[in-house]
Design brief:
This protein is of the alpha+beta class and 269 residues long. The protein has helices at 20-56, 66-82, 98-105, 107-126, 158-171, 200-216, 227-248, and strands at residues 88-95, 136-143, 146-152, 175-177, 180-182, 186-193, 222-224. It is elongated and about 140 Å long.
Length: 269
């Protein structure tokens, strides 16, 4: 019977080394794979950044949109709740008679005007002097010709009015677009927030209400919200609804008061 050699007696062969040429090919392939992974990772980061930009910024002007504005506004409101000395304000900015510009000069011209107005808003905030500049500021576009400026960390609420006037002055010079010069007016509604601040949506609604009051006063003006404005707006809304309901139900009747000539007793009109 053939004797089986012991393990200690077995001789093992060392692994065969890859030929230098093959090793070089493998090294180059590995480098290409790493480069491809880096490129794919960069493409994914770029795609994620573009998605985030599209989700949080206005496609036309590049300004933050409503979603990002509300996020920043909620943060500011939370700071005001936790710190009694923290002040913030919203400026609701509207271009007066923008629909006339769109109808007369075209939507393309209107879009170019909005882009230029957005750039002026940003430049206006950047050019504020140190005394007026808040800790945080943000200019956003809600849609159409509606812009909102968040002033978070004001030294005093009176600064919000001064900044509104600064913004109006920054938008006042003529816009030169497509070989045509156009001047615009802007109306601004101002809502102030601080200790015991309302929630973010209520503050935005207050700024919108103040904007409506500024437009009623003759446009190219600014107005600061107070509670009477809300009560008057609510009363107006309820009256309009009541009149519409009365018309639908045929509850309105027209009564004429005749004008009678005293000397003849005849109806004149």
């Amino acid at each position: 019977m053939k004797e089986i050699p012991k393990v200690s007696q077995l001789r093992t062969r060392p692994p065969r080394a890859a030929p230098p040429r093959r090793l070089a090919q493998q090294t180059r392939a590995l480098r290409r794979a790493r480069a491809a992974l880096r490129n794919e990772s960069a493409r994914r980061r770029d795609a994620e950044e573009r998605l985030h930009q599209a989700a949080s910024h206005d496609a036309l002007t590049g300004l933050p949109n409503r979603s990002l504005l509300m996020d920043r506004l909620r943060e500011g409101v939370e700071r005001a709740r936790n710190r009694p000395d923290h002040l913030l304000a919203l400026l609701f900015v509207d271009i007066d008679n923008f629909n006339v510009i769109n109808d007369s000069l075209g939507h393309r011209f209107g879009d170019d005007l909005l882009i230029e107005a957005a750039q002026r808003l940003v430049c206006g905030l950047q050019s504020l002097n140190a005394r007026l500049r808040p800790a945080h500021s943000l200019a956003a576009r809600l849609g159409g010709d509606d812009f909102v400026i968040l002033l978070d960390g004001l030294r005093s609420h009176s600064d919000a009015v001064a900044i509104a006037e600064h913004v109006q002055q920054h938008l006042a010079p003529l816009f030169s677009l497509g070989g045509r010069e156009v001047g615009i007016g802007t109306s601004i509604g101002i809502a102030l927030g601080g200790a015991g601040c309302q929630d973010a949506s209520a503050l935005l609604r207050s700024a919108d209400t103040a904007l409506f009051r500024a437009k009623l006063a003759g446009k190219a003006r600014h107005a600061v919200f107070d509670e009477r404005m809300h009560a008057e707006t609510l009363q107006r809304f309820e009256l309009e609804n009541a009149l519409r309901a009365a018309l639908d139900r045929q509850q309105l009747a027209i009564l004429y008061q005749p004008i009678v000539a005293l000397d003849t007793g005849r109806i004149r009109s």
